[in-house]
Amino acid sequence: MSYQKKFRLDGERAVVTGGGRAIGLCCVEALAEAGAAIVVIERAEADAREALALREKGYDIDLRIGDVTDSARMEAIATELADGGRAATILVNNAGIGQSGIPSQDVTDADWLRMMDVNINGVFWCSRSFGRHMVAMKRGAIVNLGSMSGIICNRPQPQTPYNVSKAAVHHLTRSMAAEWAEHGVRVNAVAPTYIETPMVMAVEANRDRIPIWLADTPMGRMGAPEEVASAVLFLASSAASLMTGTIVNVDAGFTCW
Ligand code: NDP
Asked: Relative to the CA of 47, which ligand 1 atom is closest?
């Protein structure tokens, strides 16, 4: 028995949505370094430049252009990969959007629908399309990007649509895990705290919020995207062979308080 080998992904084929930057890009690197062949899904080729540059390290990285809200496109990519004998055995549902600071009474229909479309519909469309082939193959691992916002309600900024979308991701994770366990497909999620990525750092209003967030965090710091990718790698690997339907907090202790 080699415990180190359990973290290897040689022969696996991983699809990472939104794998072009930040947490998604780190997931691409983590899974590729472990030996998986990767297909990144991004909306534009320019967004995937850094991911494709990882080929220089000898990694097998491919790109498909698509928007996770486009269920027909996700189905077409899944079918194309399966028809070519390269059906995904790992899916990381990373693509997501954030929006905060809007009180619920001011959230527009468009705000709400867009949040649900990307953060929950997109996760379901991809899980359904890529997961169908995993079910047929009787093996696979799906890792969803949930959030501590699916567990707690952030303060001081209101962000009900985001929080609800991530709570839905968590329950989708449990529901599909229960359903697909008998087919050899594991479904888990990570629930990160605030991570230093464009989603958080590009928002001007967050500068004043950060000290409040850190005061609420036992470890007193935000996270780096690589720290999330490590947990994703673990859940995708056979080191987590007994884990399904789990929401793994990667949150510097935030949810302890
Ligand atoms: P970023 O905004 O930095 O990156 C998101 C990536 O997803 C981008 O590459 C983006 O591409 C892509 N994307 C967005 N919408 C779509 C779409 N409709 N179809 C395909 N790709 C899309 O986010 P993070 O790296 O910070 O977050 C990644 C995930 O982690 C998200 O699900 C997020 O909710 C979750 N998370 C993040 C936390 C944080 O503090 N950063 C905390 C907890 C969870 P494009 O350039 O086209 O927009």
From this structure: 46
Domains and CATH numbers, the chain: 8-250 (3.40.50.720)
Active site residue 59: no
Q: Compute the half-sphere exposure of residue 105: CA atoms within 13 Å on the CB side of its CA.
A: 0
d(CA 167, CA 177): 15
Q: Ligand 1 pocket: which of 43, 172, 203, 250 to mutate (most atoms <8 Å of CB)?
A: 43
Average pLDDT over residues 223-251: 98
**Under 8 Å between Cβ of 187 and 173:** yes
Distance 130 CA to ligand 1 centre (A): 19
Compute the distance between CA of residue 53 and CA of residue 126 in angstroms, rounded to an integer.
Answer: 25
Say how far apart CA 36 and CA 24 lie, in whole Å: 15
The structure tokens 């059906």 sit at: 87
Convert the pLDDT of each residue in 107-126 to its tens digit: 999 999 999 999 999 999 99
- Which protein residue's CA is at the shortest distance from atom 39 of ligand 1? 195
Alpha carbon nearest to ligand 1 atom 35, residue: 145
Question: How much is the pLDDT for 248?
Answer: 98
Closest by alpha carbon to 194, among 255, 113, 142, 257? 255
